């Protein structure tokens, strides 16, 4: 599956990319702000997006809303640090499918993606 | 595998620390600079996520706690001078931590800063001195949390030794050794109790946050509420305090958003029952329409029409916790409950607890979170089956009795037994666990989970014991187990999760 990874920390992007690639997926692109995520989504049309919440420029939640406007079928998995549960809920209401809380187990990320694909 | 990320973590955190310092310098001159406040929040949040991922727990916890200090400034658009000063100290600490990581040295402890942070949150007067520590008061000493954690871990190891000692001394059958074993066992239990208490904090540590927050939320929605808290003095393990805030906050918000129409009362109460704490969030609002749920679950093909008619309200409410139940449209029809409840439920379940719902149409609803007092030590039955041993946490157990195979009735291929005029469905554990079972007299353990009672048939209950839960990968290969422990003879033992046996 072609996946776009969105997170403001390079460290997190690298880690997620490694996990996804080890799980047999292709990371087709990355973004470090919400705005960049929306732009890159248009251009890459990935099968799935992993989305951080607290980012500069535009939050992950706004980005979910924007991406959903462009592509109502977009599949977005929220990946956020603990303490942002209320925001996770908001993201789910905005159209994200599932969430994973950092620090995450690699298996948790891959399982979640598998579940999303089955839906 | 994390090693490869360490250098990336260090360099990225270093650049964040510099950025943080610059933002703080801006804020020192202009405390109303909203952009800088948001930036500080974001950086703390990012550092938290990275630190936790790398397993630098103290750094992550501190960043998490400090992040909360920014919540009010973020909405107000102004930060006070004291918080800025404290953040400078935090930046110093972060730099020290990175230096220690680079030198492979022991990381500086964060608990003093964590305490100050909590005090600031509670609006207490704090004196901030960069790089110095305050002296202790007479008759009191300050102990670093990490030291208590070390003690706690050591007593956990002692608990394992205790079980071995008791087992061995009963096998050897020497009275003197037996007496000694019993005394040692009692002392170890007492020691463990004392240390568990050192780790306890009153629930008010979390509850204190809610009155002001709920007042503001209610005001935003033009609702008039009376908010009552009871049981804040109940003490629970620190590991639970740390995680309790979000789920409770969510239930309170749910009560305000969907339970209360214009005016009403919300109650947050905590009580202790055996090894559990119960946290109730109640409102006197319009309640949940169970007939509407009944209609919806049939419409959505979650159950067939006939079954739906037999479900009791409690069983119907459980559908609200299912991720596949709620959509925005349905939810507004059923008084708004639903969105996010599955997520609260997941949090609570992950902690080994449960979420229950009670409601009466027109009278209000109560959401009950039940959590174990400690996540580390649990009292369990030790079961013997096919030369294997399993632990079953006592907090699920209601009673036990013996049965003979001839007492068991079979209805529609389901085995059950009559117990005081109630029907108790039976589950044969050896069968589920692929064990060879013994013939003859067996024990039944009545377990109660998620409002359902089941009789677990087991070959033998060997013992009742305190077991220490070992951290495992959260994703054990089977839903039949919630974790594992090391038993008295040094062998691993799996902890059964009754919910997995349906």
Automatic annotation (TrEMBL), chain A:
Residues covered by the Response regulatory domain: 2-117
Signal peptide: none
Keywords: Phosphoprotein
Residue positions where 4-aspartylphosphate is found in the record: 52
Coiled-coil ranges per UniProt: none
InterPro entries, alphabetized: CheY-like_superfamily (IPR011006), Sig_transdc_resp-reg_receiver (IPR001789), ST_Response_Regulator (IPR052048)
Keyword Oxidoreductase: no
GO biological process terms on file: phosphorelay signal transduction system
Phosphoprotein found in the keyword field: yes
UniProt xrefs under PANTHER family: TWO-COMPONENT RESPONSE REGULATOR (PTHR43228), TWO-COMPONENT RESPONSE REGULATOR ARR22 (PTHR43228:SF1)
UniProt name for this protein: Response regulator
Automatic annotation (TrEMBL), chain B:
EC number(s) recorded for this UniProt protein: 2.7.13.3
Superkingdom of the source species: Bacteria
Keyword match Nucleotide-binding: yes
Modification Phosphohistidine, positions: 45
Residue span, Histidine kinase domain: 153-375
Keyword annotations of the record: ATP-binding, Chemotaxis, Kinase, Nucleotide-binding, Phosphoprotein, Transferase, Two-component regulatory system
All copies of domain CheW-like, residue ranges: 377-502
Stored SUPFAM superfamilies: ATPase domain of HSP90 chaperone/DNA topoisomerase II/histidine kinase, CheW-like, Histidine-containing phosphotransfer domain, HPT domain, Homodimeric domain of signal transducing histidine kinase
Domain HPt: 1-101
PROSITE patterns: CHEW, HIS_KIN, HPT
One BP term from GO: chemotaxis
Catalytic activity reported: ATP + protein L-histidine = ADP + protein N-phospho-L-histidine
Gene Ontology cellular component list: cytoplasm
GO MF entries: ATP binding; phosphorelay sensor kinase activity
Gene3D superfamilies per record: Histidine kinase CheA-like, homodimeric domain, Histidine kinase-like ATPase, C-terminal domain, HPT domain, SH3 Domains
Record function comment: Involved in the transmission of sensory signals from the chemoreceptors to the flagellar motors. CheA is autophosphorylated; it can transfer its phosphate group to either CheB or CheY.
PANTHER family from the UniProt entry: CHEMOTAXIS PROTEIN CHEA, SENSOR HISTIDINE KINASE CHEA
Protein name: Chemotaxis protein CheA
Organism: candidate division WOR-3 bacterium
Lineage: Bacteria, Bacteria division WOR-3
